[in-house]
Amino acid sequence: MKSIKRTQRIISLVILFFVLGMAVLVFKLIHESSFYMMNSDKHELGFVYDRKGDVLFDGTGKDSYPDNYFLDVGNIIGDDKGQMENTLVAQNIEKLNNYSFSNGLIQNGGQASICTTLDHASNRAVFNAYGYQEGCVSAYNYKTGEILVCTSLPSLDVTKGYDNIANFKPGTLMSKNLYKTVPGSTQKVSTVISALEIMGTSQLFSKSFTCTGKYTNRTGNDIDCHNPYGHGTQNIQEAFENSCNPFFAQLIEDEDLPLDRLKKQYEKMGYAINGAKPEYIDINGIQCETASTTLEDPYQFKTQWGCIGQGDTIVSPIQLMMWQSAIANESGRMTMPYLIDHVTDLKGNVKEKAKTRYSDKLFSESTASSTKQIMLTNGSDRYAYSISGYRVGVKSGTAQVDEGMKENSLLVGFVDDPSFPIAFCILIEDKDSGYLTTEQVAQVLLDNLKNNY
């Protein structure tokens, strides 16, 4: 009798383990089948769309598109071929999976999709404006964080493949908006913010320095002005508009701007100082590089030059754009950017809807307000005709690269309009290789966003 009961218990345990094993197997099939299908030769992906439903990536590859249709967004959207990792598709490929355990492989193009915030028409217009020149443009809604334009040249149409990859121009497989570059005098926005935060508006505006075309600092190094005849005696507004290097070099030496406080403010804004390890800004899984510089001695050339936007200072265009939101909103907090508005599953259900997020406070509301006014005055005084139809706050910059052999042109700014809250960063590489100006690109950018957004 005991042996029968023992046998019954053993059989019951065997059945229990079998049932549990089957449950685990079914669970793994349901939850891991998508992974194995994604890594099989028969996997099929859904679509990536712009904000109006325009196709930006076709994972099925079955439809046909006009030649170079994806050229303006090729290196930010990417594809599933493994050649570009820091792209929207590569970092979010599981969201495009057209297979589920219950539904199997969707053969009709599928419903899994990523709906982005990008405006394809505006990206193409800006891309076309560059002609044979190269660079990048980013623009977003500084109230919501929606990235509307993120185009980078040179680029590629992903439908054409990579058979000719050895002949691709440098930078083709990356969006330059995400990677650090020399900011030139757009860096003076950060220096103005820091000075306002440390001194306050009244004290900073009470400062005046004289520019004779060159300033020899206290360690004997020369800081040249782009105007060899100088700008005379100026206050901060005049020096900002004139982009006067000698003024800013003297400002960095000023005893009311202690270096330790300047370093802390730069760090608060996201700079890695004096060799510290920089962090990344995450944009839907895409990594965007952050700023770094050297601030060691306020009387030395390297520190002064870094605060002017040369030397060791490098910043990504996306981060330059993000700082504009903290100014335009007069909050001192950046609006965090995003590319994915929402995702749809195989049944077309909307999920993962984006939400607006903000950074920690980088500087005070009063500093934001004063910086905004300085930039708006610059826009009104210097750019009213070259960027017409918009009330803009802007700062331009010329950046020496390739050991001074070439110069890049930059423009950062925002539109001061509650119904059209756009912040942007424009970069034209090797500006002297053509006749294009950042103001011309800005006009194309804003006009097209106004019409399409």
TrEMBL record:
Residues 135-442 form the Penicillin-binding protein transpeptidase domain. One of its GO terms (biological process) is cell wall organization. The keyword Transmembrane applies. Keywords: Membrane, Transmembrane, Transmembrane helix. Signal peptide: none annotated. Pfam families: Transpeptidase. GO terms for molecular function: penicillin binding; peptidoglycan L,D-transpeptidase activity. InterPro entries: Beta-lactam/transpept (IPR050515), Beta-lactam/transpept-like (IPR012338), PCN-bd_Tpept (IPR001460). The keyword Ligase does not apply. GO terms for cellular component: plasma membrane. The chain crosses the membrane at residues 12-30. This is Penicillin-binding protein transpeptidase domain-containing protein. It comes from the Bacteria. It comes from Ruminococcus flavefaciens 007c.
